[in-house]
Design goal:
The complex is a heterodimer. By secondary structure, chain A is of the alpha+beta class. Helix content of chain A is about 60%, strand content about 15%. Chain A is elongated, with a radius of gyration of 33 Å. Chain B has a single domain, classed as P-loop containing nucleotide triphosphate hydrolases (Rossmann fold). The chains are: A alpha+beta, B alpha/beta.
């Protein structure tokens, strides 16, 4: 049990009791703690999404095949670009179940709303006006996907009973919708990219005060500790900081968890109870963080070789080999190119196999970029000979400093990854957000089944700015899709200019009905007219129906309104139709929902980057302060020899600025280059504002880090330090 | 008369013997054929100007540095043939060290510092601290037992270091400028206590110094100059 005694001695050294040792331990614990908090948060994403999807599934309608107990229909209300979704429902059996989180089924004229919607209704009259029903209750947490969900349950008006679907109750056993392979992969790549700097941050936090530790261990070597004993002692010392940091991280995580209720970014939010780390990942963090810390300390001991007289490490850091770093980037680029050669962007979007190739390629590029920075910093530190004293001191110090480039490597990985991901998600959003047919002055209203159209059209006519309303009817008869609308719509969506009433066009090459064939439509015979083929944004056999009595007997599925392009027009349109039927939705809402997914993913990437940049600031500041502290003797000597404090402060600024500038210079071309390789031709766009923001943020980071070192620097250059040293 | 530094004046068997040591740091030679012979219980002062190689000689004698050429034998065993573990054990059990600076661990209390070599061996904490406390009392610094080295004066710190060097009952104490950072009064007291305690335990002391008044505590003096050693005439 000799090792146990040595381990305990290491722990004793860590909690030495002197102000310095407590400060070092606190810094390490805070650093590791922050890292652990973020890791726990990352480990909670899976379970949180699962809990959320359970609630969503529990609240989804169970379509009745037999024994229906409810009639219900989904409705949505758009208000200032926000989508308020709800269900209108009515009990058709005495034992009809209430939705989760709701005490009873609201009757006609009654409304149950989510807390967020209630707040909105209280603060904004225009929202209240969209809900003429009286509010009889608030949906409990169990019935809400997220704390700030805007949802409601309303009694089904008698007029809409026919359009409602029968339902057995609530709770669907269908698996929740999953993301496309590419997004799952990009999310995994993003999380991995974000975890790399986090790991580096934790590592740097556990290595704070390394020089002091080396001297301490040398003193112990002198009185007879063997190398093996030293390893156990160093492990004990590092373990203390790591374990304390683990506790701090867990405490921070649970202390911050209640705040989740109040935080929602771009529609992504969770209840505090949702955020519980996956047990396996939690165990990996609990074991992994201390193990990584100890292993890093032991690896450092291997390179340092602490002898009885002190560190026998090479005075300068060993020069790094470059080839494998660039080889990683090259291999990554090759993997991306190979994937692009096998399948285009859309194949990658929909098929998991090329997506894996792409993911591996991006991961290799990111790993290579992170590895190149320390080499690059080493090259610059050894080759550049500036004239100024401050940059000279900074470059010379960088020759000894492995902490700053290490932390910045993490930042560079995040930057590169986020630049790549943002461009790619931007490309995906471009495709989704801009369907070719959607002119800004054209508003497509999707109608619920069997909704009375006349009152809707009357309501729409009262909206100022309406120029034209077209009805679109879609019906499937004998596997032939028959679409009936007017020539205005046909001309616009199929690009034909000779449309007359009765003309027909086929936009479905898979089904070619013979002209003259009889189809059964709405219980009547309808003869397929002569047609010609066309392409465009309508489907099936498109007929300029006009006064065709059979087609006119079909209920319209869409109303196309031409009016103002302004978004408030859409709101006014929905407000007007909502009075007649709240089930009418704008197609742009659905598209907006898809765009929202990309926005959420982008926000996630940006949010993660911001969080990790903050961690990097703390890590860099801690490493910089630690270095000033460890180098206080040479610093005091410089000050005593007449080097002005201003020069020393500027030197600290240079010391962070040089690696940061090199990091950005590396991240921007590699990040954008990777995105260029992946993005489809012609869709690659560089957001220069974003790049300018990145550079500005880096400048702020450098400034903040340098400012953080000033108190330590001021303390180090006091003459008293030189005397006591 | 200048004598052969590898043989004692009375021809008694050597406890520690260095013969023809050569050691260079890069292109700079530190030892160039130095030698020394230390008998049990004697105090040998190694003197010489700065950069003469006296500290390097002490480090080679203690097995901290391995000479490029030549041999160091302790109780007839060659140190360079020992592995790191064996040499570490030797430092823990048979050797004690008092240096000018930095040999105390700042995070540990003075009592814990003195008990450290015992605890690195497998002595139980209570026993180790009890023995450490005895030595602190013997060296008149029992009152700083619970203080950390940074909270003591230079003289107290060096006495704690002496206590730590002697707590394991070593056969040889290596002292490199032990009074270098002390005023003369404190220096005298530390030397008195070190030499008295060493004599009481029959420990040999290899004392590196450039101060004649410190060397005066020794039984004999060896001068190192340009990496070579030379025995001085006994002072009468």
């Amino acid at each position: 049990m000799r090792w146990a005694a040595d381990l305990v001695l290491g722990i004793r050294l860590a909690v030495g009791g002197s102000r310095t040792s407590w400060a070092r331990l606190a810094l390490t614990a805070a650093g590791v703690g922050l890292g652990v908090t973020v890791l726990l948060l990352a480990a909670s994403i899976g379970p949180a999404r699962e809990a959320k999807s359970h609630r969503v599934q529990a609240a989804s309608l169970d379509p009745a095949t037999a024994n229906p107990k409810l009639k219900a229909r989904h409705v949505s209300v758009s208000w200032q670009g926000r989508l308020i979704t709800g269900v209108e429902l009515a009990a058709t059996a005495p034992d009809a179940p209430a939705p989760p989180g709701v005490g009873r089924i609201p009757g006609p004229g009654e409304l149950v709303v989510s807390p967020e919607l209630l707040d909105l209704m209280r603060t904004d009259e225009s929202v209240r006006a969209r809900f003429p029903e009286s509010v009889i209750g608030v949906i409990a947490d169990a019935g809400l996907p997220r704390p700030k969900s805007l949802i409601f349950y309303a009694g089904l008006p008698d007029a809409h009973h026919d359009g409602a679907q029968p339902a057995a109750g609530f709770g669907s056993d269908q698996p929740p919708a999953t993301l496309l392979p590419i997004y799952r992969l990009l999310m995994v790549a993003a999380i991995s990219a974000l975890l790399v700097p986090l790991g580096i941050f934790v590592l740097v936090a556990t290595r704070l005060g390394a020089t002091g530790r080396g001297q301490r261990l040398a003193a112990i070597r002198l009185v007879g500790a063997s190398r093996t004993q030293l390893r156990w002692i160093a492990s004990g010392e590092t373990l203390t900081g790591a374990v304390l940091g683990l506790f701090v991280g867990v405490a921070l995580f649970f202390a911050a968890r209640p705040l989740a209720r109040f935080i929602e970014v771009e529609g992504v939010g969770f209840f505090p109870t949702d955020l519980l780390p996956d047990p396996l990942l939690g165990a990996v963090i609990a074991v992994g963080v201390p193990v990584v810390a100890v292993v890093s300390a032991l690896l450092a001991l291997r390179t340092e070789d602490v002898g009885p007289l002190g560190l026998s490490r090479a005075v300068e850091l060993p020069r790094h080999r470059a080839w494998w770093r660039f080889a990683l980037i090259g291999a990554g680029a090759a993997a991306i190119l190979a994937t692009s050669a096998v399948g285009g962007y859309w194949e990658v979007m929909s098929d998991a196999r090329p997506a894996i190739g792409l993911g591996v390629g991006i991961a290799l590029v990111l790993a290579g970029t992170g590895a190149v920075l320390p080499w690059l910093v080493g090259q610059v530190a050894h080759r550049v000979e500036p004239d100024g004293i401050a940059p000279l001191l900074a470059l010379r110090t960088l020759r000894f400093d492995s902490g700053t480039p290490r932390v910045l490597s993490g930042v560079v990985v995040v930057l590169t990854g986020s630049l790549t991901l943002q461009v790619l998600l931007g490309v995906a959003a471009q495709f989704t957000a801009a369907p070719p047919s959607d002119a800004p002055d054209r508003w497509v209203l999707n109608l619920p089944p069997r909704t009375p159209v006349r009152p809707l059209e009357e309501a729409i006519a009262l909206v100022g700015g309406v120029r034209q309303v077209s009805e679109v009817r879609v019906h499937v008869a004998d596997r032939v899709v028959v679409t009936s609308t007017d020539c205005v719509e046909i001309a616009e969506r199929l690009g034909v200019h000779d449309c007359v009433t009765g003309a027909a066009y086929l936009v479905d090459p898979t089904a070619k009905p013979e002209p003259g064939t009889k189809l059964r439509i709405n219980g009547q015979d309808w003869v397929v007219p002569r047609y010609r083929e066309a392409t465009g944004d309508l489907w099936g056999l498109v007929v300029a129906g006009g006064a065709d009595p059979v087609l006119a007997s079909l209920p319209p599925t869409e109303l196309v309104v031409r009016g103002d392009p302004d978004s408030s027009f859409g709101d006014r349109l929905l407000a007007a139709t909502g009075r007649a039927d709240r089930g009418v939705t704008l197609r742009r809402q659905v598209e907006a929902g898809q765009v929202e997914l990309f926005t959420s993913l982008r926000s996630g990437v940006i949010g993660g980057s911001v969080l990790l940049t903050l961690l990097a600031v703390i890590g860099l500041a801690a490493a910089a302060v630690d270095q000033v502290f460890e180098r206080r003797r040479p610093t005091a000597v410089l000050a005593a020899n007449g080097v002005p404090p201003r020069v020393l402060a500027v030197s600290a600024l240079w010391q962070s600025a040089i690696p940061a500038a090199l990091g950005i210079a590396l991240a921007i071309p590699v990040g954008l280059g990777t995105a260029w390789l992946v993005a489809p031709a012609g869709r690659f766009r560089v957001d220069w504002t974003e790049i300018a923001t990145t550079v500005a943020a880096a400048a702020v980071v450098v400034l903040v880090v340098s400012l953080c070192t000033l108190p330590a620097l001021r303390s180090a250059i006091r003459p008293a330090v030189l005397r006591t040293e | 008369m200048s004598g052969d530094p590898t043989t004692g004046a009375d021809g008694a068997r050597a406890l520690l013997e260095a013969v023809d040591l050569h050691k260079s740091f890069g292109p700079t030679p530190a030892l160039d054929g130095a030698g020394l012979r230390v008998r049990a219980g004697e105090v040998v002062a190694v003197m010489g100007p700065s950069g003469s190689g006296k500290s390097t000689l002490l480090h080679c004698l203690a097995g901290i540095l391995t000479p490029d050429r030549g041999t160091v034998r302790y109780r007839d065993v060659e140190l360079s043939a020992m592995g790191d573990g064996a040499r570490s054990e030797l430092r823990r059990t048979d050797f004690g060290f008092v240096f000018q600076f930095g040999q105390l661990v700042p995070e540990l209390s003075c009592l814990e510092n003195v008990a450290l070599p015992l605890r690195l061996g497998s002595v139980k904490r209570k026993e180790a601290e009890s023995r450490a406390r005895e030595w602190l009392e013997r060296l008149e610094v029992a009152d700083v037992a619970d203080k950390r080295p940074g909270e003591t004066s230079g003289g107290q710190g060096q006495r704690v270091a002496v206590a730590r060097a002697l707590v394991t009952g070593p056969r040889v104490v290596f002292a490199d400028e032990p009074t270098g950072a002390l005023d003369s009064l404190n220096g005298e007291r530390v030397m008195q206590l070190l030499v008295t305690a060493a004599k009481e335990t029959n420990a040999a002391v290899v004392l590196v110094t450039h101060e004649a008044r410190v060397a005066a505590y020794s039984d004999r003096e060896v001068v190192v100059r340009d990496g070579r050693s030379r025995e001085m005439e006994p002072v009468t």
